[in-house]
Specification:
single chain; alpha+beta; 10-stranded antiparallel beta sheet; two-stranded antiparallel sheet; 14 helices; 12 strands; about 45% helix; flat
């Protein structure tokens, strides 16, 4: 559908560009070749009509020409008297034949046609894309519903709003969410389906320049006691480079990116790990084989006990306290809709990965790092807190000075309202304090006598 729309618009634009110039030239040539006719419309003398005779009989009009002096020979020199008597015939009215400004050819309305075709194409693409995304979301939910219900007691209920039919929640025309809760070792799991914006014609045209894929992002909120202290990430090279710049925890605790070949993964993956012990524990032979098997659909595995979202940019205000962190497991998979024409077949390829998520949850729950690794991780977190306090020291000092100034201002207003004598004493006290502050500091030394 999208290729047909793009090709149609391209052909119409090319056709409009060529035909517009040709028709413009033809119009001028046609206008020049039109024959000129000069019909003579003579004013008929209807003096013989009975109505006119009756009118003339009843009404007497004085024929008094106020421009009669222009025909006087004595008024002008060289006056041609013969010209007035040469032609006393009825005047002739000549009407030029002007072509009607109406074009009967469709080629003369290229711009209007393009506008109508563009509007129709936009709405056709909107309804088609919306129904396509809704179909993908419905197929995904029906495929995974039984597995989710076996592992969670509540599926599709986030506890915030009352939902009659529990299921996917439509956030936008291309985004659907699903909340699951009621399982050991985790507070809940949020499933977010991020489809291509098929309802937007501009986004579909942008697919040719920057293609994107349909994604499933699953975020598991772990219990505090069921996850140890570490930050770990396995992702494709493009995603790993982006996450290391945008994610706050990855950019601080493990900015170094290592090739996946060092751990037995394919060359398309990169690994970020705060502790080498964690990498060897998670990426065992079974996990490596599983990731390599589904390397075309696995985009990112992000495990962190210090997850706080995106890193703050320079434009945002400097926070005065550390952001809130959570222990999470984030899985990002791509839906290969570009490889499979049938949506059911495309979603079935990522169905086994849901079981892989539950296996990772159990493994992270059992994982416990050594004492040395624990000390190293705690030192890293203490170092990050100290660096944050240094960067926010100026902001905190400025805030403290502002609070102090506001307190003094309130005290002064209160004294002014109570008593003028207290106001005078307060001003004297403030003056002495300022003098002591400006006076040079001297150190007193005691000398013992010999």
């Amino acid at each position: 559908m999208k290729y047909f729309l793009v090709i149609s618009l391209s052909l119409l634009i090319c056709f409009a560009h060529c035909k517009f110039e040709i028709e413009e030239v033809d119009e001028f040539e046609e206008f020049e070749e039109l024959p000129r006719t000069e019909p003579d419309l003579k004013l008929k003398d209807d003096s013989s009509s009975p109505i006119l005779e009756k009118t003339e009989a009843e009404v007497t009009v004085e024929d008094d020409d106020e421009f009669e002096h222009f025909n006087d020979e004595e008024e002008f020199e060289g006056f041609d008297t013969e010209r007035l008597h040469v032609d006393d015939k009825d005047p002739k009215i000549t009407i030029a034949s002007v072509p009607v400004p109406f074009h009967t050819k469709w080629s003369n309305y290229i711009m209007e046609t393009l506008l109508i075709v563009g509007i129709v194409a936009y709405f056709a693409n909107f309804f088609y894309g919306r129904s396509k995304n809704a179909q993908l979301a419905d197929i995904w939910f029906k495929t995974h519903k039984s597995l989710l219900e076996d592992n969670f007691s509540l599926v599709g209920d986030d506890g915030k709003i009352e939902i009659e039919n529990s299921g996917l929640i439509k956030e936008t025309e291309s985004t659907y969410t699903l909340w699951c809760s009621g399982r050991t070792c985790c507070e809940g799991m949020l499933v977010e389906l991020k489809f291509i914006k098929r309802q937007d014609l501009a986004s579909m045209l942008n697919q040719f320049l920057r293609p994107v894929k349909d994604e499933v992002q699953i975020k598991v909120d772990m219990n505090k006691e069921d996850m140890d202290t570490f930050v770990f990430c396995v992702a494709s090279k493009k995603t790993a480079a982006r996450c290391s710049k945008e994610m706050a925890d990855l950019s601080v605790f493990c900015p170094e990116r290592k090739p996946g070949a060092n751990y037995g993964l394919t060359d398309s993956f990169s690994v970020h790990s705060e502790l080498a012990e964690v990498s060897s524990s998670i990426l065992d032979a079974k996990t490596v084989n599983y990731i390599n098997k589904y390397s075309d659909v696995i985009d990112c595995l992000h495990f962190s006990d210090r997850y706080s979202g995106l890193k703050l940019t320079d434009d945002t205000a400097v926070p005065t306290k550390l952001p809130a962190v959570k222990k999470v497991l984030i899985f990002t998979f791509t839906i290969p809709t570009d490889k499979y024409a049938d949506p059911q077949e495309a979603i079935s390829t990522i169905y086994p990965l849901m079981s892989f998520i539950f296996q990772c949850m159990e493994r992270i729950k059992r994982l416990r790092i050594s004492k040395e690794a624990k000390i190293k991780a705690e030192k890293n977190r203490l170092r990050v807190e100290e660096a944050f306090l240094k960067t926010t020291h100026a902001a905190r000092a400025e805030a403290a000075a502002a609070r102090k100034e506001e307190k003094k201002k309130l005290e002064k207003e209160r004294i002014l309202k109570e008593d003028p004598e207290k106001q005078r004493k307060w001003e004297e006290k403030e003056m002495k304090r300022q003098q002591r502050k400006k006076a040079p500091r001297m150190k007193q030394l005691k000398v013992k006598s010999m």
